Amino acid sequence: MRAIGVTRYGGPETLHEIDVPVEELEPGTVRIRVSAAAVSPTDTLVRSGARADAEQADAPGDVPGMDVTGVVAELGPDGGDGLAVGDRVIGIVMPTGPHGAYREEIVLPVGSVVRAPTGASDAEAATLPMNALTARRALDLLALGTGQTLAVTGAAGTLGGYLVQLAVHDGLRVLADAAEKDEELVRSWGADVVVRRGEDVAERIREVAPDGVDGLADASIQSAQVLPAVSDGGAVATFRGYRGDGARGLRVEPVMVRDVAEARGMLAGLRDLAEQGVLALRVADVLPAVEAAEAHRRLEAGGVRGRIVLDLTA
């Protein structure tokens, strides 16, 4: 089966068309004919080998990709738990070896698949699963109450955008960062206060919230640099495993999307919010799958707003 992956780790140029085995259907799974796959920062870690064993130089057919839109092609032996062949769906993929989203077909647990949002294109729908689930998981771990203040770094990015929009929907007061060119976009999602992004963003947050914010979601991955923005005893959600320094009684919650990768009800709820217009599905560009290397180059160069999406039908 055709996929886009790597047989050696390295830069974007290592991505090319490869052949991968057809995956077997098992109970509790569905086969999806993939039409679109979003390109995320995690994909670049798979491609570069950053997630591989330290001594592993070769990538035996590693395929990146955590988000798919497609059509149900086949159901596992016990059925599809409400899904039917021909249904247009979205799904989240945990990429291990050849099991990544940049491929013609993929087999996923039923718990990772829901109906695609009505009215969204395949590319738009593919931007939802991984980042929206990550944002929802982060907010649930922070467990802030209505009216409390959440700071979001990296607010103009895909994860940051979902964090802002979901937090506003939850009734939180949102203090977000943005570059000057992105300020109006972040305000349009309902952020109460927008401060300028940068290495000293914690200081700017404290200027607005002198006692510190109740919670912070660090989508820009600044780790220790942003801890001073949070009040003593406050909560911080991190996204690359950072666990804090134990100071000031801060509760640091590393967010792992794998913990909710089969939380089907959660994904369906996020899909519903997208249909209602609560969540904006942002596509930066759509490229043929064979141009995955260019998608990775552009993502790593920075400044991409929304997700670049690969067209697997091209």
TrEMBL record:
Keyword Transmembrane tagged: no
Annotated region (Disordered), positions in chain: 46-65
Pfam family name, one: ADH_zinc_N_2
Domain called Enoyl reductase (ER): residue spans: 10-310
Superkingdom field: Bacteria
Keywords from the UniProt entry: NADP, Oxidoreductase
InterPro entries: ADH-like_N, ER, GroES-like_sf, NAD(P)-bd_dom_sf
Cited SMART domains: PKS_ER
Alphabetized CDD domains for the sequence: MDR_like_2
Signal sequence, renumbered to the chain: none
Presence of the UniProt keyword Ribonucleoprotein in the record: no
PANTHER family associated with the record: QUINONE OXIDOREDUCTASE PIG3 (PTHR48106:SF18), QUINONE OXIDOREDUCTASE PIG3-RELATED (PTHR48106)
Name assigned to this protein: NADPH:quinone reductase-like Zn-dependent oxidoreductase
